[in-house]
TrEMBL record:
Protein's recorded name: LysM peptidoglycan-binding domain-containing protein
SUPFAM superfamilies in alphabetical order: LysM domain, Lysozyme-like
Region annotated Disordered, chain positions: 15-60
InterPro entries listed in its UniProt record: LysM, LysM_dom_sf, Lysozyme-like_dom_sf, Transglycosylase_SLT_dom_1
Start and end residues of each LysM domain: 413-457, 519-564, 601-645
Pfam families with a match to the protein in the record: LysM (PF01476), SLT (PF01464)
PROSITE patterns, per database record: LYSM
Length: 648
């Protein structure tokens, strides 16, 4: 006879008090079943589940469905680990069939002394750890599904989080409650340990908008190329590296590949930081896959050597904050990421979406951190864009969004900035407002637009009433002004492509100082110190001394202002300084150096000179110089060539 049958017989043989019919007593809040619904044995000896009243059926089925798999797993695990002290799997399956609220099931559990199946299985709180040197990590290893070892570097990171890094760790912990509930199931579904999530903690502190010096972005800190390799879209509209859901799927796939290649989670984590190739080479070079030995050798960056112990330390403290000296009052836990999804078939202004859902634009942006613009990307009915909205707001959104008139909608264009563009000109071209352009592109001001930059241009759906008449556009302008965004006056705008800083070319000012001539000269394209020194018959060393230039300075920036003290020939008085074609020259020197040619205008091409710089100097065009000297390719003119600077 099976153990279950023996137990049932034992329960049935318990005598009842005199005059009282045997009747199971349910715990408080649990109703006893009528005699007609008492469980019975099936043909194979197991217990048949009692019929469920119709009015309670749905709720009971839902609870059973959510609990059955986990309970059976625990039963099988218990039987496998300690068959003698735990009831076998067959018995626990029979118990499960009784239902969670069946009084007979509860009595059987009491008899089997299995409170585990009714009580919280959370491990007891870890005692306060005051000495890391004597801390026995084996007492917490079973609380993690990733390998954890206590090494000196791990202890150092724990102390760092307790001390100098405490304010950052508080923020990480406060933010973790928003992302752990959504990230860990994704990791588990991909076959990764759930505690791998702490890699995102040390990478970004669970920040969707973290951006590193290496141009890595998002909570899992993907660089652009790796993100694209694992399916994260990055374009004008979105950067999916910043999306906590999509990026976690990509990180899980990447880490799984790294683990498959390198064979151990420590090596996979290190590979995530520095690349699998470097870690694999280290394993081959030193003939070991023991991370702690590899970390002592040369060949890995300091950041990579610290990466594994930092992750272990973060996991230890995050799962046992009180044991490591943190109090609950230090954390301001964020609510779990929870949302509805709606499908959009066109690019839509975030402000319009937020008003339709009855939430703030910030709420929409927080749930959709991948969005780079103040609107969603272009979409179609066949390929809609899936937008997240706060939980419970999708019905209101659907109702209000459908009622929007064309005047309350905006369409969008993409404009690539060209040389000479200004914000006011672009706004006029599209029939929109400068403030709206600034707001849509998250710009505070645009005195100067960057060449080849792409701008989202909000355009009213109905152009008949004019740009200002559009309700959506007027709302966008008002929103921009509330955020401190104000367009500049057109006369104060600088056309795109205008060089920054001084744009002087050639002489700026000539003056007498203590009887000597001083020239302020603006560097032109093609100029060099050697060329400028030769024009004024001075030495390069003097030029450097007058302008406090380093001895090895080899380049000059366009428009830089230089001070020049032209030389004066002995015995002939000060040389006459003249301006010719936008360049200051010493008249006597030019006259003595310039070979006499047709109409007296010739020039010997010096080292570093170009036809363009010569043309600027003599106020002629490059095309004319090429024509007068029968030059076909301006790039092949040799140094020392005598150039005619006037028509023959």
């Amino acid at each position: 006879m099976s153990p279950l049958s023996l137990l049932l017989l034992a329960l049935a043989s318990v005598p009842s008090p005199p005059g009282v019919a045997p009747k199971p007593v349910p715990p408080p809040g649990v109703h006893a079943l009528p005699p007609s619904e008492t469980p019975s044995l099936t043909a194979d000896g197991s217990l048949a589940a009692p019929p469920v009243p119709l009015e309670e059926g749905d709720a009971t089925e839902e609870v059973e469905a959510e609990s059955a798999e986990l309970e059976e797993l625990r039963a099988l695990e218990g039987a496998a680990l300690d068959p003698e002290s735990k009831p076998n799997a067959e018995m626990m399956q029979s118990l499960r069939r009784l239902g969670l609220t069946n009084p007979l099931r509860l009595r059987m559990l009491d008899a089997l002394e299995e409170p585990t199946f009714r009580e919280d299985t959370t491990p007891p709180a870890l005692a306060r750890i005051t000495d890391l040197a004597t801390f026995d990590i084996s007492q917490v290893k079973d609380r993690f599904d990733i390998p954890v070892d206590m090494q000196p570097r791990v202890a150092e990171y724990i102390q760092f989080f307790q001390g100098p890094g405490r304010k950052w760790f508080r923020k990480w912990m406060s933010r973790s409650t928003r992302y752990l509930p959504v990230m860990q199931p994704i990791l588990e579904s991909k076959g990764l340990p759930r505690d791998t999530v702490y890699l995102a903690m040390i990478e970004s502190g669970f920040s969707a908008h973290a951006y590193s010096w290496a141009h890595a972005s998002g909570p899992w800190q993907f660089i652009s190329s790796t993100g694209k390799q694992y399916g994260l879209k990055q374009d004008f509209w979105v950067d999916e590296r910043r999306d906590p859901i999509k990026a976690t799927h990509a990180a899980a796939a990447y880490l799984k590949d790294l683990h498959g290649e390198l064979g151990h989670w420590y090596l996979a984590w290190a590979g995530y930081n520095t690349g699998s190739y470097r870690v694999r080479k280290m394993v081959q070079r030193y003939g070991t896959n023991d991370w702690w030995l590899l970390a002592e050798e040369k060949g890995l960056a300091k950041e990579t050597k610290h990466y594994v112990p930092k992750l272990i330390a973060a996991a230890l403290v995050a799962k046992n904050p009180a044991a490591f000296g943190f109090s609950e009052e230090e954390f301001q836990y964020e609510s779990a990421l929870d949302y509805d999804e709606v499908k959009l078939t066109d690019a839509t202004d975030l402000d319009v979406l937020a008003r339709s859902a009855g939430v703030s634009v910030q709420d929409v942006q927080d749930l959709n951190p991948e969005l780079k613009r103040w609107c969603t990307p272009p979409a179609t009915a066949a390929k809609p864009y899936v937008l997240r909205l706060p939980r419970g707001t999708s019905p209101r959104f659907a109702e209000n969004f459908q009622k929007l008139s064309p005047a309350d909608r905006l369409t969008f264009r993409v404009h690539t900035v060209k040389r000479g563009d200004t914000l006011s000109q672009i706004a006029q071209q599209y029939g929109t407002a400068p403030e709206a352009i600034l707001q849509m592109n998250r710009l505070k001001s645009a005195r100067t637009l960057k060449l080849r930059a792409e701008l989202v241009i909000p355009v009213p759906s109905g152009r008949g009433g004019g740009a200002v008449a559009s309700g959506a556009l007027a709302s966008k302008v008002a929103q921009a002004r509330r955020n401190g965004v104000v367009a500049m006056r057109p006369e104060d705008e600088v056309p795109a492509g205008t060089p920054k800083g001084p744009v002087a070319a050639g002489p700026v000012k000539t003056e007498k100082v203590n009887g000597r001539t001083r020239v302020t000269y603006g560097v032109q394209e093609g100029d060099s110190l050697w060329l400028i020194a030769n024009r004024f018959q001075v030495s390069v060393d003097d030029m450097k001394k007058w302008n406090n230039l380093p001895r090895r300075n080899r380049t000059l920036s366009l428009g830089t202002l230089l001070t020049v003290w032209p030389s004066e020939p002995a015995g002939s008085g000060p040389a006459k300084v003249e301006e010719r074609g936008g360049t200051i020259v010493v008249a006597s020197t030019v006259a003595s150096q310039a070979p006499v040619g047709p109409k007296g205008k010739v020039h010997t091409l010096a080292v570093g000179e170009t036809l363009w710089s010569v043309a600027q100097r003599y106020n002629v065009s490059v095309e004319d110089i090429m024509k007068w000297n029968r030059i076909k390719d301006h790039r092949t003119v040799p140094t020392g060539k005598l150039l005619s600077l006037s028509a023959p």
